[in-house]
Amino acid sequence: MLSEYIRAAMRQAHYEILPDSGTIYGTIPGLQGVWAEAANLEACREDLQTVLEDWLMLGLRMGHPLPVLEGIDLNPREGVA
Questions:
Q1: Which of 74, 70, 76 minimizes the C-alpha distance to 7?
Q2: CATH for 2-62, among 3.40.47.10, 3.30.160.250, 3.40.640.10, 3.40.1580.10?
Q3: pLDDT computed for residue 43 by the predictor
Q4: Do residues 24 and 40 lie in contact, with contact meaning Cβ atoms separated by under 8 Å?
Q5: What is the sign, positive or negative, of the torsion defined by CA atoms of 65, 69, 71, 74?
Q6: Residues 6+ apart with CB under 8 A from 35
Q7: Judging by beta carbons within 10 Å of its beta carbon (0-12, 13-18, 19+), is residue 37 exposed, middle or buried?
Q8: 11-60 pLDDT, tens digit each
Q9: E strand or H helix at 38, and its extent?
């Protein structure tokens, strides 16, 4: 389920070329703080996925609510251990 969530999030990623530096900037809408900047698109995608994975692990560990993406809900259900 985690891999599916990551794939769903990456499908929503948005990339743009920063005019001042020419680097690629990537974000995932709705996931605050998940962004990356790299010299090319491939590197930006890889960095963005790493940031996403770290963000998810921290959010799960800290008990932060995570957005539901494409029907995938990683939030713990009440009463389920």
A1: 70
A2: 3.30.160.250
A3: 98
A4: yes
A5: negative
A6: 25, 26, 27, 28, 48, 51
A7: middle
A8: 999 999 999 999 999 999 999 999 999 999 999 999 999 999 999 999 99
A9: strand 35-38
